[in-house]
Amino acid sequence: MSRIFDALQRSGAELTGVEYDDMVSVATKVFESPIGPHDNEEEAVRGAVEEFPAVEICVSSSSGLVFLTQPESLAAEKFRFLGVRMRQMQQNRSIKRVLVTSSIAEEGKSLVSANLAGVLARRKKQKILLIEGDLRRPTLAHQFGLHNLKGLSEWLQGDSQTVTNVYYLEEAGLWLMPAGHPPTNALELMQSTRLSALMNQLATAFDWIIVDSPPLLPLADTTVWARLTDGALLVVREGTTEKRPLERGLEMLKKADLLGVVLNGSSNTNHRNYYQRYSAARTNVQA
User: Fold this and answer.
1) Is 70 exceeded by the pLDDT of residue 163?
2) For tag attachment on the chain, is the N or C end more exposed, with fewer CB atoms within 10 Å?
3) Is residue 88 part of a domain?
4) Strand 97-102, strand 231-237: pairing
5) Is a pLDDT exceeding 70 seen at residue 23?
6) 271 part of a folded domain
7) Within a domain: residue 19?
8) What is the DSSP letter of 70?
9) Enclosing domain of residue 264
10) pLDDT band at 265 (very low <50, low <70, confident <90, very high)
11) How many domains does the chain have?
């Protein structure tokens, strides 16, 4: 019990600066409730989701997190459409853990990951977890204005089987497991059995798990994530992605289940004027 309390306390008060006065009773209720003979630690994870500490986010108006900053924009509507397509896929096949990657850096995979998680979280009864899977050059937590939070890296380097270092972003309506401090042995940590066990536990607690992974080239980290997820979305950026890296990226993903390709930064504005008129009309009706 003391180890559970220490873990929750560290991921609460010490990391976020927020005091949790009743953490002992919280841990007792979640982790010491009676369990049946077929229950295990995964049951504790399901019950503990609501008790993960909440942190405040700070997102600037110029942020690319359009599901928060510009919910009526065309970009936000496109992400909502992507969310609808993902739910349609989930109705026909077993998809819960989705890898979001790109062939090279600077194609926008982290923002696509965050916005996809954000629009999926609009369905209130579903629990969405966003994992910052790039342990070498993490940027996702910073997009939410979060800094110095312990995350996946610290958990993989520990020995506890209890899931910690997950935070609830109340304003966004989703949970986040940040990368944490970049380790010196990222690939070695990811190839350990602890990451596989963690993903299996988390899959019992969340309806969707969106993994923002490193780019496919030139590292091997993403191939590890591909084995632990149900399918991959490949992000390409208009004017940035070149044919050769894209071909190599697709070849690396051939053993994974490629769910689709997301075109980022498109200059196609054929429907922009129509959407702006539609959005304005909708606002007038609501007023």
Assistant:
1) yes
2) C
3) yes
4) parallel
5) no
6) yes
7) no
8) -
9) 52-286
10) confident
11) 1
Phi–psi pair at 91, nearest 5 degrees: -70, -25
Rounded CA gap, 180 and 19, in Å? 21
Using pLDDT thresholds of 50, 70 and 90, give the confidence band for residue 266: low
Token pair, residue 153, equals: 């890296």
Number of helices (H) and strands (E), helices first, in the chain?
14, 8
Indicate the DSSP class of residue 181.
S
So what's the pLDDT on residue 219?
Answer: 73
**276 in a structural domain:** yes
Looking at residue 262, which CATH number applies to its domain?
3.40.50.300
To the nearest 10°, the Cα dihedral for 106, 111, 117, 118?
-170
- Tell me the H-state helices in the chain: 2-9, 15-16, 23-31, 41-48, 66-69, 74-92, 109-120, 140-143, 152-157, 186-190, 193-205, 221-228, 243-252, 272-286
Of 86-95, 112-121, 259-268, the range with the lowest mean pLDDT is 259-268
Residue 115 φ then ψ, to 5° = -70, -35
What angle (nearest 5°) sits at the alpha carbon of residue 151, between those of residues 127 and 184?
140
